[in-house]
C-alpha cells in the first residue's frame, strides 16, 4: 500500500515513520525544501525520543521517502494524509490556508480514486470545505475523478508520540462510505491486531472528538489550578485534595496535577478554536472560555510567588529550570516559561535558564535576553531564587546541600535567611526541601 503524508511536523513525520515501520510505502511531503533536505540527509528537525532511529531504519529499508512535490506521487498513492499546520488566527479561529492549499493541489492533480484524510486538528465543518475545494478544482479541469475525504484526528503526546501511534488506545476515523472504511481499516489493522480499536463515525463527529478530548484535558488542568489557588488562600494542600478526589472512579487521577499552566501546540490552540466555533454558531461555551482565562492567569503564578517571597524583583537573579512546555520535547509553543521570563525581565530581574533540550529553541525565540547555563547547578549559582517550570526527571532529586551553598539566602517570614525555591509543578518532596533549610513554595 502506498500513501503520502503532507507536512513533516510532529504529526506528519511521526505518522509517516510509524506507517512505514508497518511495511507501508510512505512519501512525506513538505514545501520547506531545507527541511526536506535535512530529512534526506538523516537530520530530524524536531526532538522526539526514538524518532531519529525510526526514520533512519525505514529510509534505509526503502519504505520512507521525502519530497517537496506532492503532484509527483499522487498517481501512485491510495491515501493522502494532510498533516499541515493550523495555527490560530488573531481571533482564535484555526487558520486553514495550508489545509486548503493541500486540497487544491489534490483536486488539480488526482487521476484516480484517492482518499484525502485530514489528520490536522481542524474545526467541525472543515471536511465539507475541503470537499468543495476539490470538486471546484475538478470542475475547472473538466474531469470526473472519484475521490473521498475523511477525518482521522491525531491523539499523540509529544515525548511519547511513537508509542501513542504504534499502540493507540483508540483510533478515530470519520468516513462517508464503506469503500473508505475498508481502506482505513487496512491501514490501521497492523497496529491493532489483537484488539481493533478503530472507531468509525461521521466526519463532523470525528472532527469534534479531537477538540472535545483536548478541551476536556485542558479543563481538568485549569480546574485543578483554580482549586490550588483557593487552597493557598484557605490553608489546604492541593496534593491531598488531588488524591482525595482522584480515587473516585468517576473522576480518576489523570490530569489532576496543579501547576503553572499548560502550553504546547494543541491545548491552547484547540481551546481557543473550540470557543471560537461556539461563538460562530451563536453559542458561548462558558466552561471552555473560563478554562482559557484560568490558564492565562496561571502562567503568571510563579512570578507572583517569587515577588511575594523576594519583595521587589528588580536587581534579583532568578534561575529557571525547564523551558519546554512539557518534558521530553523542545517545543516551547505557548510555554509558561516564556511568560515567566518576560514578566521577570519586565520587573527588572536577571534570568538564568537551563533545560536539557530546549535552550536552542529558547535562544531562537528570545535571543540573549537570558543567561543560558551549562547545567542545572550552573543555573542556580548566585541565584536569589529558583523557579521550577518544567518537570524534567533530572530535576526531581537535586542535591539540596550543593544548592544551599551556591544560592543567595533571602530573608524569610520567620526572620531566617534561606534560599527560595518556587516549585511550579509540585514535584519536590516538601519535607526534604525544608530539612535542607530552604524556603519552599509550591502551587496550592
List its salient traits:
alpha/beta; Rossmann fold; 6-stranded parallel beta sheet
Describe the overall structure.
The chain has 444 residues and is of the alpha/beta class. It has two domains: 2-201, Rossmann fold, CATH 3.40.50.720; 236-442, 3-Layer(aba) Sandwich (Rossmann fold), CATH 3.40.50.720. Helix content is 43%, strand content 14%. It has helices spanning 10-21, 33-40, 51-60, 97-109, 126-141, 161-166, 178-188, 203-234, 238-246, 267-280, 286-298, 301-310, 336-346, 359-366, 376-380, 400-406, 430-435, and strands at residues 2-6, 25-29, 64-67, 79-82, 114-118, 147-151, 171-174, 198-201, 317-321, 350-354, 371-372, 385-388, 410-411, 417-418, 420-423, 439-442. The strands form four sheets. It has a six-stranded parallel beta sheet with strand order 3-2-1-4-5-6, with helices on both faces. Helix 7 (178-188) links the parallel strand 7 and strand 8. Helix 8 crosses helix 10, helix 8 crosses helix 11 and helix 10 (267-280) runs antiparallel to helix 11 (286-298). The model has no long low-confidence stretch (mean pLDDT 95).
Strand sequence of the main sheet, in spatial order? 3-2-1-4-5-6
Tally of DSSP β-strands? 16
Number of domains: 2
Largest sheet: 6 strands, parallel
What gross morphology would you assign?
elongated
Total number of helices: 17
Structural class: alpha/beta
Mean pLDDT: 95
CATH class of the largest domain: Alpha Beta
CATH fourth-tier homologous superfamily of the largest domain: NAD(P)-binding Rossmann-like Domain
The CATH architecture of the largest domain would be 3-Layer(aba) Sandwich
Helix content: 40-55%
Under CATH, the topology of the largest domain is which? Rossmann fold
Provide the β-strand percentage band.
5-15%
Low-confidence stretches: none
Radius of gyration: 24 Å
Distance between the termini: 53 Å
Amino acid at each position: 500500500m502506498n500513501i503520502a503524508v503532507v507536512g513533516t511536523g510532529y504529526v506528519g513525520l511521526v505518522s509517516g515513520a510509524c506507517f512505514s515501520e508497518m511495511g507501508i510505502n510512505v512519501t512525506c511531503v513538505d514545501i520547506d525544501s531545507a527541511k526536506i533536505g535535512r530529512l534526506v540527509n538523516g537530520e530530524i528537525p524536531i526532538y522526539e525520543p526514538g524518532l531519529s532511529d525510526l526514520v533512519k531504519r525505514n529510509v534505509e529499508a526503502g519504505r520512507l521517502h521525502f519530497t517537496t512535490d506532492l503532484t509527483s506521487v499522487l498517481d501512485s498513492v491510495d491515501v493522502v494524509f494532510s498533516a499541515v499546520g493550523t495555527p490560530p488566527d488573531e481571533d482564535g479561529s484555526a487558520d486553514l490556508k495550508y489545509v486548503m492549499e493541500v486540497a487544491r493541489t489534490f483536486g488539480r492533480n488526482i487521476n484516480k480514486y484517492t482518499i484525502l484524510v485530514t489528520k490536522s486538528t481542524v474545526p467541525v465543518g472543515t471536511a465539507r470545505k475541503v470537499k468543495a475545494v476539490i470538486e471546484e478544482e475538478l470542475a475547472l479541469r473538466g474531469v470526473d475523478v472519484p475521490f473521498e475525504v475523511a477525518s482521522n484526528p491525531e491523539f499523540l503526546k509529544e515525548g511519547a508520540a511513537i508509542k501513542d501511534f504504534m499502540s493507540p488506545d483508540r483510533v478515530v476515523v470519520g468516513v462517508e462510505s464503506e469503500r473508505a472504511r475498508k481502506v482505513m481499516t487496512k491501514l490501521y489493522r497492523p497496529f491493532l491486531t489483537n484488539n481493533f480499536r478503530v472507531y468509525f463515525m461521521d466526519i463532523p463527529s470525528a472532527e469534534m472528538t479531537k477538540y472535545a478530548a483536548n478541551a476536556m484535558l485542558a479543563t481538568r488542568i485549569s480546574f485543578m489550578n483554580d482549586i490550588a489557588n483557593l487552597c493557598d488562600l484557605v490553608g489546604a494542600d492541593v496534593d491531598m485534595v488531588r488524591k482525595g478526589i482522584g480515587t473516585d472512579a468517576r473522576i480518576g487521577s489523570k490530569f489532576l496535577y496543579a501547576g503553572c499552566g499548560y502550553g504546547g501546540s494543541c491545548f491552547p490552540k484547540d481551546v481557543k478554536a473550540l470557543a471560537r466555533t461556539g461563538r460562530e454558531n451563536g453559542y458561548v461555551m462558558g466552561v471552555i472560555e473560563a478554562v482559557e482565562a484560568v490558564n492565562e492567569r496561571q502562567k503568571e503564578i510563579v512570578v507572583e510567588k517569587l515577588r511575594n517571597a523576594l519583595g521587589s524583583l528588580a536587581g534579583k537573579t532568578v534561575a529557571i529550570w525547564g523551558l519546554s512546555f512539557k518534558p521530553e520535547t523542545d517545543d516551547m509553543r505557548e510555554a509558561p516559561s516564556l511568560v515567566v521570563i518576560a514578566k521577570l525581565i519586565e520587573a527588572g530581574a536577571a534570568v538564568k535558564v537551563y533545560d536539557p533540550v530546549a535552550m536552542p529553541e529558547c535562544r531562537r525565540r528570545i535571543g540573549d535576553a537570558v543567561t543560558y547555563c551549562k547545567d542545572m547547578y550552573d543555573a542556580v549559582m548566585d541565584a536569589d531564587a529558583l523557579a521550577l517550570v518544567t518537570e524534567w526527571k533530572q530535576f526531581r532529586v537535586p542535591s539540596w546541600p550543593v544548592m544551599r551553598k551556591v544560592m543567595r539566602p533571602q530573608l524569610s517570614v520567620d526572620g531566617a535567611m534561606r534560599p527560595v525555591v518556587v516549585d511550579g509543578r509540585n514535584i519536590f518532596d516538601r519535607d526534604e526541601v525544608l530539612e535542607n533549610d530552604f524556603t519552599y513554595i509550591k502551587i496550592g
